[in-house]
Structures are given as C-alpha cells and as structure tokens.
Here is the input.
Amino acid sequence: MSVETDKKSGYVFKAPRGTADILPENWTLWRKLEEVGRQEFELCGYYEIRTPVFEDTRLFVRSLGEATDIVEKEMYTFSDSEDSSITLRPENTAPVMRAYLEYEQHKTKKFQKYYYIGPQFRKERPQAGRLRQFHQMGIEAVGANDPLLDVETIGVAVRIFDRIGLKGYNVKINSIGCEQCRPIFRAILKDKLSEHETELCELCQARLHRNVFRILDCKNEKCKEITHHLPPVNDYLCDECRIHANTVREALVEIGIPYIADAHLVRGLDYYTKTVYEITHSSLGARDAICAGGRYDNLISDIGGPSIGAVGFAIGMEATILALENVLHKKNTATPQDISGPAPSVYIVYIGEEVKKHCFYLLNNLRKSNISADLDYEGRSPKAQMRVANKLGVKYVLVLGPDELARGNVKVKIMESGEEAIIRQDEIIDWFLQKL
Here is the structure.
C-alpha cells in the first residue's frame, strides 16, 4: 500500500498487536518500579548488564530445551544469512550466561552478580499484563551453589514489591530436584499420567512424551484435576536436594518471608534445578505470576561452559504494574500526582516577546545550576502561562517583564503561600539554591 493510498483511505497506523506504548501519563509507576529495582539490586551487590535484544537461535534451543512451549511456538526467529538464524530474546538469563562465558568471567572472577532491565519478545496470545513485547527486570547470581543465595534472590524481589506498595502477593516455592533424583520422578510421573493420557488436553498429550514436567504447570482444569492426585516430587529428592530445600525454607522463616510450599510448582524452562519459585498476585486471574525464578546449575554447562551453580529471577514489569494498579483501584487510591513526570521546580513567565530571549538565557543558567525549570514555547499570554504553572504544580513562578528587565530584577511567586519576592537577577541562582 502506498503512502498516497494511506492518506486517501484515512488509515491510522497503530502499534503492532501484542505491543503497547508507554505514554508520559502512564510512566509514573514504571519509573518507580525501575528506580526501586535498581536501588535494591545495587544495595545487594548486583551490577547492571545489557545484552543484545537478539541472539543466535541455537543459544535458546540449547538452554530452554527444544520441547518447551517457548522454543516450539513463541520465538521470533529470523534468517540472518544463508547459514545462520537469529531470535529476539524470549528471556534474558541465557544471554547473560552467554556473556559470562564469552568474556571468560569464570576464569577471572567466578562469582558474579548481574541485573538487567529491558524488553523480551514472545509470540503468544496477548492479554492484560502479557504482551508480545514485554519488559522484565531480573538478577542472576552466578558461581555458587549455596542455598542461602536462593533465599537472597527471593528477598530482593520481596523488598522491591514491598517498597512500591504492592500488597497481597504470595511467595510459592518448590524443589524439582537435580539430574540424580529427577529421572526417577520423571519415570513415575510418566507412568501414572499415561493411565490418563486420553483425558489430558491435546498439548499435555504431546508433553507426556517430550516434557512431562510441564503437565504439572498446565492451566487446563481437567489436567489440573489429574495432576492434583500425583505424588509430589519432594518424596523423591536425593539427600543433597532435600538438605538444600530444607535450608531454603528454614532461612525464609528466619528472615521473616512467609511462603507457600507448592508441590506442583514447576518452571517452563528446561534449565531449572532444585529451587524454583514464583511470586503471584490473585488480582491477575489464572496467569497470576509477577516474578519467577530459581536455580539453574546446569545452564552454563548446557551452553558449552563448565559446571557452575547459578540462581536468579525475572520480574514481569507489565504484570507487576497491573497488579499494583488493581490494588490502588481497590483501595480507591489514585496513582501519585506526578503522573506525567516530575514537575519543574521553577516556571518562568515572560511578559512580552522582547524579554523572551532573556528568559531563555535565565532558564539555561538555572538548569546549569541543577535547578529544574521550564518556560512556555507556545506563545501563550502571561495569564495562560500562569495557568500552566498551576497545572504543573511548580513550587515557584519567576515573572519577568520589561519593567523587571530594566531594573535588573525578577519577581518570584511562592506558589504554596502566594507570597511574592523581588530578587536581583544576578542573585536569583543563589536564592533558589538556598530555597531548594
């Protein structure tokens, strides 16, 4: 379709299905979540890492598993050349581990702590809080097998949710064992589920022969009813996994984090071992996870590196913000007043175009002194400029007209009290620095 045809038809371009624009008026909660996340991550010794939004497709096939829903149905994969394929990252753990290996971090400083914030991509059915381009913030602690590190990651996530004011979440944990004890449970699971194969949903019938653990995570009511009566994986843990699981649970109690032991909790990716956990919020319905994580001691070796323990989580940012909005709505609490971004501290009102250039010069001097300030660029009248200042909620309005300019003064109005002050232009920066 040509541009000319678009104009004639009146077609309006829209964001692609499964994506969403984050407009300035929606940015407050996003900014709060990111700020709190960064503060908590860095408080606990995690350092930011940024990886490309696309990777070699083979990285995700090897790390996530060929029989996972993500690899089979949800990845955005493209031909990069005749003999190579790239995939928009559906998750960020594998790329971080790839970077850890590529730059030989395990040889220079084996134990590393990373955090990331950014978009991921999955070709799934869009719904509230679940998009095709979605955002995650997460951490990866690499190079240790200590179960207390599992608890540290849970604690980081919990503190983030507490600090942004999200009430009503639940921490669910389980252990899915390791490569020593899991094959035993896998065989028992497959044997017992085979008795109900025809009753399982079509997807789980395929999972029975390819990725039987994923049946435990199915949301189909009939499948849930069948799996509810299966023996829990905890009954088949080896001694090492049992000790690890007990240590995690005892430490959570010790530091005051309530949890629910969910024997049917599994993760949808093949690389998880031992501890798995989710943090959920009931306001989101069936797909209620706002954070998911666990231990993945085999991931680095699966992608060609040495055997190194690792644990981490990813917080779904859209889902978290939706849950927080639900909580605020239930309490009839509005989102913070700086909904369209932080208001400037100072708004300059000019009287007459002849003084506008001087106001612009003054504006830039204020900003150079780290004082947030703004002025009108739309040619409004002084009265209309004052209305804008009121709407923005600024602390001070600086008024400059021909008379003030001739005298070398500026008039400052203190918006909260309505008081006014006359200040010398060459003293205004120092005056504001004292006040702010």
Summary: The radius of gyration is 28 Å. Confidence is low (pLDDT under 50) at residues 336-340. The first helix runs from residue 3 to 9. The CA atoms of residues 18 and 131 lie 5 Å apart.
